[in-house]
Design a protein that fits this description.
With 184 residues, this protein is α/β, with parallel strands linked by helices. It is built from 5 helices and 8 strands, in the order βαβαββααβαβββ.
Length: 184
């Protein structure tokens, strides 16, 4: 099963992703694919919180924020929690100079990675839903993020927007997993 979880910052996406991944794995291998490359103390604190949140949950961790396919073989046959598309695109787009082709490449790599796993739960911030006008590279990034999410949504089984920890199903269903979601 491939699931895309969208939502604002601190909406409960990562917690729900951990719960869904554990249910989908059914005691099998679980991987937490971490993409954030910390640049300051705030990032480091956020990473520590995520590590604390999943202590004792049995996740292996892959820290890879660029060139996903170089490590895709490590995820074969596992349930993968990919957190997050937001950080991954930033790494690819700005990690070494601006790369205007990063969104298309990232979308392709994410789709390919998702197909190599038994299950794939993917988290993305909805920065593109703010209703704000952005300029320059920020606008390029926001548009790229929206394009990736549209691409994943078209191919994934289930798409949910998470608001205050509550999933609102946009496509598919979480019901087989025993989670009753609201409808958007």
């Amino acid at each position: 099963m491939r699931i895309l979880l969208l939502g604002g910052s601190k909406s409960g996406k990562s917690g729900l992703a951990q719960e869904l991944s554990s249910m989908l794995a059914s005691g099998g291998r679980k991987i937490y694919w971490a993409t954030m490359e910390p640049v300051d103390g705030e990032d480091e604190a956020r990473i520590e919180k995520h590590i604390e949140d999943r202590l004792g949950m049995g996740f292996e961790t892959i820290e890879c924020g660029k060139s996903l396919l170089a490590r895709a073989d490590e995820a074969e046959g596992a349930t993968v929690l990919f957190d997050s598309v937001t950080a991954y695109l930033a790494n690819e787009m700005f990690g070494g100079g601006f790369d205007e082709n990063a969104p298309e490449r990232a979308a392709g790599e994410l789709l390919e990675l998702s197909l190599s796993c038994d299950n794939f739960v993917c988290v993305c911030d909805e920065l593109f839903r703010g209703g704000e006008d952005h300029e320059g590279l920020t606008e390029d990034y926001v548009r790229g993020l929206a394009m990736i999410c549209r691409t994943l949504a078209a191919h994934f089984d289930t798409v949910c927007e998470v608001v205050c920890g509550v999933p609102h199903t946009v496509k598919g269903s979480l019901d087989p997993l025993g989670i009753t979601a609201g409808t958007a």
